[in-house]
């Protein structure tokens, strides 16, 4: 069976004004030696007053301007693509200029509609983001690849294979509907070395433009893997500035361990609890669709350094605690246990929301209460009325932070719970809740989310576990 690599390049991989695109070309050149390649692109970065910004954030800012009656501008976005255009050769430059102009005109039209209505929401927002960011970048990269003598083609939005539900701004992938729309993309893959496509963007069966939540390009890569895994020997490759290490390098500066393998479960948990490995919903969708395909996280600048993510891992050696991570801005929702099942069913079926974990229940005055740890406090604030509708006496506590230890075989570490809790105490932090269960592959420690509590706790715990030696 022919090999197919779905390679995702995020904004950081592209770099400000496309500075890292030559490295992307080299990576794609290497990948296509023995595989077909679908290259998924996020919106590029720009430099704004000397600071890196995603064009997604630039467009969101212009959308807010439109809502507030301030005339929006595409100047920053145009200047970014003008710089990237310098990577296109003379043969392809005219066509690339035209596609930039056409897509930015669509983005401008969306902003004009927002300015007129004073609303930057739903499909207007989705179209503005799509045609200024991911979709446009996939077209530009197509011409850059052609300029480097690579046989490439891009997926037009009219032939989009990612079909979603009607939740416009935080949409959900529909597998069966997408299979009926993938023929053109499959034809392009068959006929070319590389096919480019924008991440993050979907469309409904009625051709309404939709977006995943931020980080959704990871989901696009996973969705394409799901669609193509029966036709090709398919794998997914996330190209980043580093493979996976045992903690966030921005928090822990020394003693980091390279993580060579993660299970689907470990990768999903790490993403949920703050490690920017990949969107945990991408893993969830792969599992829900019964697909088993290898995923790699590759250091784009040093491709020999990779982390492999698999459903079932090889025999494990080394430290069983793979990752120490943390999440700020969490909330705890307390509800009577006899009311929780309806809420959980609704979160799954109606909201398609899964960024939470259920903590151990407790009993008070003879009544059992369940606790749901939501990993996005802002989501809870936006949906308070909905959540409290399941139990008017339920309570919500905000300003909670979570430190999480992750490893499917963490049970091999003796006294890990007591050692880590003691270390947090030594760091001057008060543990508000600790949830450790062998079957969950993780230990959760809840603290107050103030000042630099989470960073201090991650550093303290990582240092403690690094002193435990395993062969």
TrEMBL record:
Keywords: Kinase, Transferase. InterPro entries: AceGlu_kinase-like_sf (IPR036393), Asp/Glu/Uridylate_kinase (IPR001048), AsparK_Bifunc_asparK/hSer_DH (IPR042199). Residues 3-298 form the Aspartate/glutamate/uridylate kinase domain. GO terms for molecular function: aspartate kinase activity. One of its GO terms (cellular component) is cytosol. One of its GO terms (biological process) is homoserine biosynthetic process. Belongs to the aspartokinase family. This is Aspartate/glutamate/uridylate kinase. It comes from Nitrosopumilus maritimus (strain SCM1).
């Amino acid at each position: 069976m022919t090999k197919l690599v779905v390679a995702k390049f995020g904004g950081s991989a592209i770099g400000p004004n496309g500075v890292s695109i030559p490295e992307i070309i080299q990576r794609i050149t290497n990948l296509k030696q023995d595989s077909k390649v679908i290259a998924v692109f996020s919106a590029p970065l720009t430099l704004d007053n000397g600071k890196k910004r995603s064009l997604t954030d630039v467009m969101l800012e212009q959308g807010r301007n439109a809502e507030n009656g301030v005339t929006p501008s595409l100047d920053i976005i145009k200047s970014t693509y003008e710089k990237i255009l310098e990577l296109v050769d003379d043969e392809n430059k005219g066509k690339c200029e035209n596609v930039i102009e056409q897509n930015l005109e669509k983005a401008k039209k969306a902003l004009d509609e927002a300015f007129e209505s004073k609303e930057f929401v739903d499909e207007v927002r989705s179209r503005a983001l799509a045609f200024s960011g991911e979709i446009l970048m996939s077209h530009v990269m197509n011409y850059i690849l052609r300029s480097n003598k690579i046989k490439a083609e891009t997926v037009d939005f009219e032939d989009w294979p990612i079909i979603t539900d009607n939740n416009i701004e935080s949409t959900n992938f529909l597998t069966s509907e997408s299979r009926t729309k993938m023929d053109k993309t499959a034809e392009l893959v068959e006929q070319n070395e590389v096919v480019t496509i924008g991440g993050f963007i979907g469309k409904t069966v009625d051709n309404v433009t939709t977006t995943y939540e931020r980080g959704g390009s990871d989901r696009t890569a996973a969705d394409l893997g799901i669609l193509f895994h029966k036709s090709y020997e398919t794998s997914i490759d996330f190209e980043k500035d580093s493979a996976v290490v045992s903690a966030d390098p921005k928090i822990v500066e020394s003693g980091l361990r390279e993580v060579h393998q993660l299970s689907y479960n470990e990768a999903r948990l790490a993403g949920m609890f703050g490690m920017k490995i990949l969107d945990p919903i991408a893993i969830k969708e792969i599992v829900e669709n019964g697909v088993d395909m290898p995923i790699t996280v590759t250091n784009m600048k040093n491709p020999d350094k990779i982390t492999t993510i698999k459903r079932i891992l090889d025999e494990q050696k080394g430290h069983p605690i793979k990752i120490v991570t943390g999440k700020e801005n969490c909330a705890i929702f307390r509800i009577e246990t006899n009311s929780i099942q309806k809420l959980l069913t609704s979160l799954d079926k109606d909201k398609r929301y899964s960024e939470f974990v259920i903590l151990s229940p407790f009993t008070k005055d003879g009544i059992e209460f369940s606790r749901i740890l939501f990993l996005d406090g802002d989501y809870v604030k936006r949906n308070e009325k909905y959540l409290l509708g399941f139990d008017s006496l339920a309570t919500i506590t905000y300003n909670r932070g979570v430190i999480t230890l992750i490893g499917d075989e963490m049970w091999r570490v003796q006294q890990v719970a007591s050692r880590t809790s003691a270390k947090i105490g030594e760091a001057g932090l008060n543990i508000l809740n600790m949830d450790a269960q062998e079957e969950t592959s993780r230990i959760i420690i809840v603290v107050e989310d103030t000042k630099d509590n989470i960073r201090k706790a991650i550093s303290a715990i990582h240092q403690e576990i690094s002193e435990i030696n395993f062969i």
